[in-house]
Please model this.
Amino acid sequence: MRTFKPLALAVTSALAVTAWADESSFSVSGFGTVSAVKTDTNDAQFRSGTRQPNGADRSVNFGVDTKLGVQVVGKMSEQFSATVQVLSQKNRDGNFKPDAEWAFLKYNITPDLSVRGGRMGLPIFLISDYRNVGYANTWARPPVDVYAQVAGASYGGLDLIWKMSLGDNTLTVQPYAGESKSELPSGFDFHFKKLLGVNATYEMGSWLFRAGYVGTDITATSPGLTTLIATMRGVAANPALPASVRDPWGKATSELEIKKKKASFAGLGAIYDDGQLVFQGEYTQRRTDSLVEDTDGWYTTLGYRFGDFMPYVSYADVRTDLNHAADNLPTPTASLAGLKAAIIDTKAGADQSTTTLGVRWNAWKNVALKAQFDRVETEVGKDHFFAAAKPGFAGKSVNVYTVAVDFIF
Amino acid sequence: MRVSHFVLVTLLTAAAQADVAVVVNPKAAVDSLSAEQVANLFLGKANSFPGGGAATPVEQTDGATRAEFSTKVLKKDSAGVKAHWAKMQFTGKGTPPKELGGSAEVKKFVAGNPNAIGYIDKASVDGTVKVVGSF
Model:
């Protein structure tokens, strides 16, 4: 991190801010990753999350993990600061157009209690705050099986960060509230409203324990979803059909529609790092009362440092609790049977596991190199996080090879 | 010659294991800190002294004293400390402490700032600062 006093002066005059205290400063820092990824199949494309429209196959792909983040912090006084973080990574349109991932004001009420307002990272995972900072993480990317469960990565709102010292240990409590929008490929837009969550982090020597819960109202729209729901409503309102057919269709439509539905995400996690041995593990639950199915995801990672080298192993898994709202729909006609099959086929979960072997090398000052091998196993008849899967792909296993360079500045 | 060789080895060993003294301003209310409490302050996990009062940690630029402090107190190597601050910094939770170039500068800063906490080579300790821990 560098401090640029002259820039601070320039910005001060540019913004016509006159009341900056003597301690005011302006700093620019950043992080980035460049990776090359290939797999052993052309039947599907490996991606790091559901926001990416495409990914890696047998030909080398540079877009899976590659990103650049630049953060500017303006400190107006001991109490007051402004942070903007611009992140460029592959978005749903497949390009790297930069986005202001973070833009918030922070006010330190006391040294141990601060309030932040603006756009911030959605803190629902153990490492969701720094999931994009490859240098701060062990692997080439956070375990996809767990971190792809929720597409939203930032939210607009307020949080409080309250640190308490308990002897040698510290407890941090972070309540937050706001709303979040996320965009997936094929015009799939998610909107979380009335987002209300809390995280508790307990740090004890080499250990860190975290528990988090967030509840929200979820609404999602996409051209395909709108058509599906409208068609189902048409069945429920069709006067030519008897009530014994219309009513179950109406009930299933209400159950599956993603409109102002309750949703929650909960997680328990732990990190151990004594300087040599590194352990990290997390268990998470996604729950919604809609077409978006309930999922449970977990991973565990072990690493050991030999000087500047750290080999690591990891295992991650995600399972779906299938939605049965459409299973018993009456289908007196062939077209209704076809519609029912289409609804059941509209999966919105994932069942896969990943075994990972890798090594991190702190090659130069502020630069780490990683080589990682993943074997991802999918399940017959189930969904997964791959893109552009060909029919019959589910059930296959894929080897993924990654070389990544992570840096901070 | 054997004796002087022995003396030399002893001196070198002593130099290699020179203690790091964690120091605060003489006016600070704190008298003693455990390695964990010092680490919490230097890693941004705590922002005030255990008895209360804001703490302003000050780091040294890269060198033998910092390497020793990082290993013994922070329990991290240089890359580990950087990775830790990358987490804090890029999540808006904190920024790394200011860095000063060597024990003399740290001592001067701590002597002139009632909230400061720093670490210096134990041989540099004098009455302008108060030692709250040796590691």
